[in-house]
Design goal:
The chain has helices at about 15-20, 40-55, 70, 90-100, 125-130, 140-150, 180-185, and strands at about 1-5, 25-30, 60-65, 105-110, 115, 195-200, 210, 215, 225-230. The protein is α/β, with parallel strands linked by helices and about 230 residues long.
């Protein structure tokens, strides 16, 4: 049996250290910077590098995914999320570029039952950017999404994917790093199947499981992660 351990949005928090286990496959769902409360950049950098060190020490047991608060610092990206750290943007970009080979991309499949991404995959986004992917089983969808990420990061941006006057990301066309739960639920790519999407991005008070979704962005209130056991 394999235990997958999905850890919510980091945002500079160190509670991930209480949750990882070298016997698990530890999946970090993204957003390593842009904390909600002030944290000196030296500590943010140290925390990120500790995650990178943990990945290097356990390469087969750590999966690193990107979130929207990582996307905004990547080269050639001109979109800014809230709490964007303009003062340290160049340093964050350098950290992300240097560690890029260690990242898996935006999506990760756990068998054919679970699809993990920062915010979730909607049908409108998939139809627009991956119209030729007929088989949407999690393993093939994750592979297609990550191939698109390498080819065209613009497909994952905020601009051009949302509805007019949408400043929050609550539009069905938003990408797997941006879409919010209400729109995701309306246009869930897996609405007619038993596949469960595991996502972060939107803060919850605890691990929340409803209607084909598991929401794990709860590290702001409780040090918990989601365990998925696969035989």
């Amino acid at each position: 049996m394999t235990t997958y351990n999905i850890i919510g949005d980091i945002h500079g928090r160190t509670s991930w250290k209480e949750l990882v286990d070298e016997s698990y496959v530890n999946i970090f769902i993204g957003d390593y910077f842009d904390p909600y409360v002030h944290i000196p950049f030296s500590k943010l950098k140290h925390n990120f590098l500790e995650i990178i060190d943990y990945k290097n020490e356990h390469p087969d047991n750590v999966v690193l995914l990107y979130g929207n608060h990582d996307y905004e610092y990547l080269p050639k990206v001109v979109e800014l999320s809230n709490r964007y750290d303009s003062q340290n943007a160049a340093s964050i970009r350098a950290l992300l570029v240097e560690s890029a080979p260690l990242f898996s991309g935006v999506a990760y499949a756990i068998g054919e039952k679970y699809l993990v991404s920062h915010a979730g995959v909607s049908q409108p986004w998939q139809k627009r950017y991956l119209p030729n992917v007929d088989d949407i089983c999690p393993s093939k969808m994750a592979k297609a999404i990550n191939a698109l990420w390498k080819k065209s990061k613009r497909a994952f941006g905020f601009d051009g994917n949302g509805d007019f006057m949408d400043f929050y990301g609550d539009s069905p066309g938003h990408s797997p790093i941006w879409i919010r739960p209400m729109s995701l639920d309306m246009c869930n790519l897996y609405k007619q199947s038993e596949v469960i999407q595991i996502v972060g991005h939107t803060q919850m008070e605890d691990i929340t499981e409803i209607d084909g979704f598991i929401f794990v962005d709860c590290l702001g209130t409780v040090a918990k992660s989601k365990h998925i056991v696969v035989e």
